[in-house]
Amino acid sequence: MRSRSLNALSDNLALMPDAPAAPRARARSPARPDVDYDELVTFHGLERERLVLIHPGSHGATPAWPVERYAEVADQLGADGWQIAIVGDTLEPERTGAVLGAMQTAALFLAGTMSPQTLTRLIGDARLVLSDDAATPSPVAAARALGTPLIALEEHHGEATSEAVAIEARAALAREDSAHPGDPFTLHTPALHDAA
């Protein structure tokens, strides 16, 4: 079989006129602004009446609180029956992932999975937000604006023990009339659940 050189092929292709570019389809915006939020709630089995958000990220150069302490508080609240969800920016996957990796109880890992609007709505529905970061914009600033109970560890100067923060978190959760823990939280697994 005789082959043609690549140069001869490219010369032939260079003489062919370009096809007119098809107009690019614009991304359709959802019919309702809360579609992403509703899908997130359904897919992950979020229970708003017992949802606690852990946001270990920080705008500061050095986060105020160690990963291990976040995990300890999350474990204590998870064992009490609160649904723990770790949220954060896609820019800090090591820190958010390290909290999940240090935990002994189940938690949802939602870091980097949602738009800022969806995260804001989630913060509004949560029973408590625990975060290093009190800068604007941050989950703490959103929680303050929405009236969601919060613990801003940056304001504790990183000195608080995990036991002290867990006590503060339990007290804040006890003041929430619509909040209640359930059985110790287990992960919702949509694929297995839906197949049954």
Automatic annotation (TrEMBL):
Xref: Pfam families: Glyco_transf_9
InterPro entries: Glyco_trans_9, LPS_LOS_Heptosyltrfase
Record flagged with keyword Transferase: yes
Keywords assigned: Glycosyltransferase, Transferase
GO molecular function: ADP-heptose-lipopolysaccharide heptosyltransferase activity
Cellular component per GO, a single term: cytosol
Protein name in the entry: Glycosyl transferase family protein
Source species, domain of life: Bacteria
Region of interest: Disordered: 177-196
One example of a Gene Ontology biological process annotation: lipopolysaccharide core region biosynthetic process
